[in-house]
Amino acid sequence: MSGLVANILFYILPFLLVVGVVVTVHEFGHFLAAKWLGTKIDQFSIGFGKALAHWTDRDGVEWRIGWAPIGGFVRFAGDENAASVPDQNDLDAMRREVLAREGPVALRRYYHFKPLWQRAVISAAGPFANFLLAITIFAGLLMTVGEPVGPARIGSVTPGGPAARAGFLAGDVIVEADGRPVKYFGDVKQLIILRTGVPIPFVIDRQGRRLQVTATPERGPVEDGVGRVHQLGRLQLAFTDARPRIQRYGPVAALAGGVVETRDVVTTTVFYIGRMLGGRETADQISGPLGMAQISGDLAKQTSISSKHPGIVALNGLLTILTLVANISVGIGFLNLLPIPVLDGGHLLFYAYEAVARRPLAAKVQAAGYRVGLALVLGLMLFATWNDLQRLHVFNFIGGLFS
């Protein structure tokens, strides 16, 4: 029983907290934009399934909390489903019904009869809210906790490895990597892990002299921060364990840093997807709900054993969860902007066609697009779940039962 309680505390609760915050902010972005533009809203739901609690505000919006807290939605008046996908063949009938029941003025409150630019703003508001959340968290951490700053000094170089072949020596200090200043050795590690086979230019300081070297990471076992090993890019060098200097920033600099951090997460994601589609990177880094639960749980466990003082454990746990929320929020925002029907980016794609062609896309084409988009999203979820099960060694466990 104690083991079950511990797993709930370390894995399920952090996962639900992270997903709940990210999804709520995403849907609240849609909600606020719709309210600002005078859109009639029927429901705002956190989670799916039967409502554990629900209430109706004075504007007629039903607020509900579903029993499965791994998603959410905003349902606009006239929506056929939670994805804001109307039955296109019934739009004319809906228009006639609204006109007869509420008059022409009320028609402007319905999402599907809004001007094109307003529908686009409402669709884009969800991903924008995710990016804004990430920027806010990163900026807040830079103001309060700060970031590690210190020379990325090389302590040792593995003979015959990529770093040795490039000419790195123990004692070198990496000052630039791929054209960007290096504040801390963690910057270098994050750069090389997804660049297997990609030459990276470095600027190093060797006893006061600035030298340029180019190193190409090779794939090999790399341990992450929670004890798991992945096959990623590495240069086979080690940095010294010199204690970094923690630098905190004022509000303006922290906000700028939050924007840069969010941009870096997006560019890294785009870079990884591009390499994966080109066959130069494996897809084993894609995670689904199980993977996120494992990551959040492992991080929670790690922070709990890093100190015995309850206050420090709680603070470290909060900072860890906030960082995870920020990174996942960027990922959710980026994913929803992909031009796949059913996602926000799919809506924007259809609206772009409507703006150019001066008419909506044919109803049959939209319906087919939504079916294809739904299949793609479900396929991605299944693939991510497969990856999660592989990482958790579930298939090995099942195979062992029959061996």
Q: Percent range for helical residues?
A: 40-55%
Q: What class, by secondary structure content? A: alpha+beta
User: Uncertain segments of ≥5 residues (pLDDT<50)?
Assistant: 394-402
Cα-to-Cα separation, first versus last residue: 29 Å
Walkthrough of the structure:
By secondary structure, the chain is an alpha+beta fold. It contains twelve helices and twelve strands. Strands 4, 5, 6, 7, 8 and 11 form a six-stranded antiparallel β-sheet that branches. It has a two-stranded antiparallel ribbon with strand order 1-2. A hairpin with a 2-residue loop joins strand 7 (200-206) and strand 8. Helix 4 runs antiparallel to helix 9 (310-336), helix 4 (116-144) packs across helix 10 (344-357) and helix 7 crosses helix 9 (310-336). It is elongated and about 80 Å long. The two termini are 29 Å apart.
Task: List the main descriptive attributes of the protein structure presented here.
12 strands, disordered C terminus, 6-stranded antiparallel sheet, 12 helices, alpha+beta, 403 residues
Concise structural overview:
This protein has 403 residues and is an alpha+beta fold. Helices cover 53% and strands 20% of the residues.
Break the fold down into its secondary structure elements and pairings:
Blueprint: H1 2-36, E1 41-56, E2 62-76, H2 91-102, H3 104-107, H4 116-144, E3 147-149, E4 152-157, H5 162-166, E5 173-177, E6 180-181, H6 185-192, E7 200-206, E8 209-215, E9 218-223, E10 229-234, E11 237-239, E12 245-247, H7 251-277, H8 289-305, H9 310-336, H10 344-357, H11 363-391, H12 394-401
Antiparallel strand pairs: 1-2, 3-12, 4-5, 4-11, 5-6, 5-7, 7-8, 9-10
Helix pairs in contact: 1-4, 1-8, 1-9, 4-7, 4-9, 4-10, 7-9, 8-9
